[in-house]
Amino acid sequence: MKASRIVVFGVAAIAALLLAFVVRGLVAGKGSKAASAQVAVAAVQVPTVKVLVAARDLKPGERLAEADLTWMEWPEASLVPAYVTDGEVTTPLPPEEETKVEAKVKTAAKKAGDAAEKALAPTAGMEAYLNGVVREEITKNEPITDRKIVRADEGGFMAVMLEPGKRAMAVPISAENAAAGFVLPGDRVDIMVSREIPRANGNGNMQVVEPVLRNIKVLAIDQNLQAAADQQTVIGATATLELSPEDGQALALARSQGSLSLMLRSYADAGGASGRVTPEDTSQMTSNTVRVFRNGQASEVTVSR
């Protein structure tokens, strides 16, 4: 055999070996990528159930329609007893994605899901919440819970709106004694009483204005639990207030003694103390006398501040 042929065969053999190594590397690379993809799929795709959520932001006092609610896929392992489910079985993973890694993930998720399912009460579906009233603000995609919704079949909506230990009490209002109608449901007010008391020198009576309650939540104006979206004022005949039993007694007494006025508080002051103004509070206030002219007649009014 000629030397040239030997060289050609040698080069061909070396090329074949190199090609074999390249093909093997490519096959191994594809296999590892496929395995990585399977692990990623197993890590992301977990069993889910449908949970009832808000389809948009919901404000207190709004009545629910079907368009306000929707179902959302929710990880089964993240369920809590307060969530509302559609009662259907868990959405499984595709059979072709059954791998050893995924099996471990599903086993762990199933244990957590079984624990949640035992505590879950999938009795009420979407229909049970239609025509219900929002009790607390709910953001879009937030799960619906009984704590934030008063269902239409429960009745006694105002009683459900009240915080534990509180009472609802209505007082007469007008534009003159309720900040010109700028007091809206959800606002907080201070309540003053204007009444007549005998003068210290016995020479007739004088009017005084005294604080009765402070930082009181307004639940409703007339039967309106919230103002319209573009409404800045509400002129009503009554304001329903949230009070403690003791505060209600103090307000009833003050109403029998004189006329009430509601003073709108700033949102920045909404976090202060709430309830009756005590004698200790009034002792720290200063009193000023203001002369008021009505129909040409002058009178003096003592104002505490």
TrEMBL record:
SMART domains in the cross-refs: SAF
The name this protein goes by in its record: Flp pilus assembly protein CpaB
Source organism, top-level taxon: Bacteria
InterPro entries (UniProt xref): Pilus_assmbl_Flp-typ_CpaB, RcpC_dom, SAF
Organism: Asticcacaulis endophyticus
Pfam families associated with the record: RcpC (PF16976), SAF (PF08666)
Coiled-coil ranges from the UniProt annotation: none
Residue ranges of every copy of the SAF domain listed in the record: 49-150
Lineage: Bacteria, Pseudomonadati, Pseudomonadota, Alphaproteobacteria, Caulobacterales
